[in-house]
Amino acid sequence: MRIIVVGILLSPIWASQPAAGQTTLSSAVPEFAATQAVATPDAGQDQAEFRTLDESIQNLKTLVMNLNRDLFLLEEELLFPANTQVAIFVSMDVGEFFDLDSVQIKLNDQNVANYLYTSREVDALIRGGVQQLYLGNMKAGQHELVAIFTGHGPHERDYRRGATIVFDKGIGPKYIELSISDREQKLQPEFVVTEWE
Fold first, then answer.
1. β-pairing verdict for 174-183 and 188-196
2. The predicted structure's pLDDT at residue 171
């Protein structure tokens, strides 16, 4: 086996003078270091830019939400103009003698709304909530509203009760409330249809 040793003699770069157009290592290193210092961004500047970007995104979200609300209101005004609008609401008081299951609404013998309630929705009504059950357009004149309430009455018996009203629809919106309350004297639920002024 033969071992060959090769020796290379390197002269110090800084000792020799560069030829014309050549750059020595010692002169190249500071340029590289300077380039690196310029290319490295400042951490504080990055945080400020991210903060500004986050504020811009939050402002944009707010603008989009406001625009969405305005579009919803505009759509409601276009679909249900104030002069032809009829809205029907449901409210409930106490609820000891009646446990609501569903409500059916008929306007001029046409079924316009059916709603099946969950126990959480009934609890919300008992605590004072008011639900918009129907929103639609009707021409001016006389109309008949029939509301049919289904649920459980006293002693857990099935209970089905109707309430009716004939109302005049004039110019302007018409609001009608279907309220369910307990009649303490008769130990029965009471169903009342009222027009809001």
1. antiparallel
2. 83
